[in-house]
Amino acid sequence: MRAVDREILRLAVPAFLALVAEPLFLISDAAIVGHLGTPELAGLGVAAVVLQTVVGLCVFLAYGTTASVARHLGAGDLRAALAQGVDGVWLAVVIGTIATVGGVLATPALVGAFHTGADVAEHAETYLAIAFLGTTPLLVMLAATGVLRGLQDTRTPLLVAVVGNGLNIVLNVVLVHGLDMGIAGSALGSVAAQVISAGWFLVVVVRAAREHGAPLSPDRAGILAAAHAAVALVVRTVALRACLLVGTYAVTRVGTQASDVNVATHQVAITLWSFLAFALDAIAIAAQALTGRALGSGDVDGTRRLTRRMVAWGWGSGIVAGLGLAAVSPFIGALFTSDPAVRDLLVPVLLVAALGQPVAGVVFVLDGVLIGAGDGTYLAWAGIVVLALYAPAALWAATLPHGVVAVWVAMTVVFMGARWVLLSRRARSDRWLVTGASVVR
């Protein structure tokens, strides 16, 4: 068991630090923009939800690539593993280009769907139109990260994340306050940091591919195969991201009209929740890489042992995260805003979120195990079921007294609870334990 723990920690600790660093792009933006004013913070909240949704829909570029590369690695074919990874990077470029053009053109309509006040909408459009220019670099970063994780390397993504986020903070401070560019400066600083980080990743992946004779040119068949394999993960991600969008929409419906305080509070809370989700996802990243490698080598018993141990780690890390969030809930609001109404409302919301962290830790681990196993079809159906349960619950919660807190109760109990039940049920079965270098779902 100690050997299993060491293997998990070898991948999870750097992944944890990298995943904690990733949401700092938005946390640092929120901290810097929040002191410009509540409308600016609320505008960032709307823009961030849209941008996270677009990028989140493409998380398969990391998850699917990690699993496929790890399976080939487990089967002993490093050249094929890298070739698979290069195809994922090219797919990221194609999707990123389409998303950038479409996103910039659709920015007014996307922001308008939230029915916020005119000031909030103006700030949201300004940030989002610029931030969309960083879509392709972000997707390349996802795909390249997946390649390295599949090769059991989580240290390089950590180094890139730390340097990239440090650069992002510096650029945000200089552009927003030093050059007085406001919320537009925050978006420009983030895009510049993303471009530099993506370039760094490409250098690492290209060097590895050349060393092992893997092709670097676009392979139409390989790109199409990667896209086809990703369909189920896209459906799964769409369903889960839709849940988060429904939650934000529900918050804008609390009371008789949309409130800047409600939206701003939800933005800070969802930012912190996402921060913890990334942190808890570290064990899931290890689960993807280790599960893919174990099944690629045909080791079913080892896969079972890894799963049991990683679930235990999920419970433990979730408890720690929940206790930490509860402890800082009365104080952390001051980091993001000077509005006392937002600070006061934030405390009960964060306490509700803290109660759900242990279950979240297990959910993320089991999600990682099944992604590593290539069990995308089940994850897609599970995501649809969760959305069908959570959407009406969140919209109903918004009509209750203390609506923002009620929406977060629905998120904790229905959204995360339903995922826990469905993923635990699947993990107890044998249907996901498919061995070999590749798997078709």
Shape: globular
SSE succession: HHHHHHHHHHHHHHHHH
User: Which structural category fits the helices and strands?
Assistant: mainly alpha
- Tell me the number of helical segments per DSSP (H or I, 4 or more residues long): 17
How much is the radius of gyration in Å?
21 Å
Percent range for helical residues?
Answer: over 70%
Describe the sheet with the most strands.
Answer: none
What is the number of independent domains?
Answer: 1
Please, what is the average pLDDT? 86
Number of strands: 0
> How far apart lie the N and C ends?
31 Å
Strand-residue proportion: under 5%
Model regions low in confidence, pLDDT < 50 over at least 5 residues: none
Structural account:
Helix content is 83%, strand content 0%. With 441 residues, it is mainly alpha-helical. It has one domain. α3 packs parallel to α11, α4 packs parallel to α11 and α16 (376-397) packs antiparallel against α17 (403-427). The model has no long low-confidence stretch (mean pLDDT 86).
Keywords summarizing the entry:
441 residues
Could you provide a short overview of the structure?
With 441 residues, the chain is mainly alpha-helical. It has helices at residues 2-21, 24-34, 38-56, 60-74, 78-112, 118-131, 135-150, 155-178, 182-211, 220-252, 260-296, 300-328, 333-336, 340-355, 357-372, 376-397, 403-427.
Topology record:
Layout: H1 2-21, H2 24-34, H3 38-56, H4 60-74, H5 78-112, H6 118-131, H7 135-150, H8 155-178, H9 182-211, H10 220-252, H11 260-296, H12 300-328, H13 333-336, H14 340-355, H15 357-372, H16 376-397, H17 403-427
Helix pairs in contact: 1-8, 1-11, 2-3, 2-8, 2-9, 2-11, 3-6, 3-10, 3-11, 4-5, 4-7, 4-10, 4-11, 5-6, 5-7, 5-9, 5-10, 6-9, 7-9, 8-9, 10-16, 10-17, 11-12, 11-14, 11-15, 12-14, 12-15, 14-17, 15-17, 16-17
